[in-house]
Amino acid sequence: MFKRSKMPRHLLLFCFIMLFSTITSGCSSILPAKEEEMDEGIKVLIVAFGSREPIPDMKVSVRDLDTDKLVTTATGDSEGKVTLNGLKTGHRYLFVPSPEDNSDVTKKPTNVAKVVNVKEDTSYVVLETYYQKENQRLDVPVILQNPQLPHGCEITAMTAAFNYYGLNLKKTKMAKKYLPTEEVIDKDGKRIGPDPNKAYAGDPANELTGTYAFAPVITKAAKKVAHDYKTNLKVTNLTGASEKNIIDKVQQGIPVMMWVTLDLSKPKKKEGWYIENTNKKPEMYLNLHVVVLTGYEDSKVIVMDPLHGYVSHDATKFFSSYKDLGSQAIAIEK
Description:
By secondary structure, this protein is an alpha+beta fold. It folds into two domains: 40-135, Immunoglobulin-like (Sandwich), CATH 2.60.40; 153-333, Cysteine proteinases (Cathepsin B, Chain A), CATH 3.90.70.10. It has seven helices and 20 strands. It has helices at 9-24, 35-38, 153-163, 171-178, 215-228, 243-251, 315-324; strands at 42-48, 58-64, 70-75, 81-84, 92-99, 113-117, 124-129, 181-182, 185-187, 190-193, 200-201, 234-237, 256-261, 269-270, 274-275, 284-285, 288-297, 300-305, 309-314, 329-333. The strands form five sheets. Strands 3-2-5-6-19-18-17-13-20-12 form a ten-stranded mixed sheet, with helices on both faces. The chain is globular. It starts with 8 loop residues before the first helix and ends with a strand.
């Protein structure tokens, strides 16, 4: 007769804990999953505006919106599909499409980027762009405000709108010669500065002192530019215009400068300065931005963003931000 061996107590306790863990965890493994197995990446489909047809063999570059650093690149397949790995939850990225082969200019799209806020459930993104060059009605040239004008989105957008009509203006010259600026100063224990409807507060070329100006200031500057360069261009302050009126302008081939926020979120403000010769002290915008509206396709707007180049946004969000900033807009037309 065999004698049953006894299991050591510590081994018995270990087996009980392992059994209990397996039962309470359902079908999940009791061992942690490897990080690379958990990250399956974000699937991206690159399609053409309007037709929604997939665009084959496109490259997608991803930049971090906060640092403007390149994060990753990948090339799509023949069906316009590409997988992007290594993106972090809670970060905002700029997805920028571009042709892998630049030799065929007839199929070279105008790169229309998209801002993507990566959330825990973000697994699929549709990236729309122009496929045939002639599909873009408003070929507003891309002019970026950085590095010379870190706070010069208004004058940069104005320069791009004029250059759409064949002028060859420089943003830095426009800022120095045509943008009326006034410093914010300390006087008698108060910060005193200009009314943003009358002058730009600070210096757009200065990272620390630059702020912003509203539509009346840029309208006045643009009219002087149109006159000095002997153009037949008409500058119209469209502040208060409806979404339909603005879209109609763009579809007629007229670029429209628009005041929105940087990420189309609600305006952020902080304590401002006393308006010169008044007791008024309005709050100061922290995320004001100016872009040029260049197109409207499939409930999306396409803008020339002085920070990023061509970017598409949901039209509803875009016009909501436009209203939050006081519905300010300027058209430059023949």
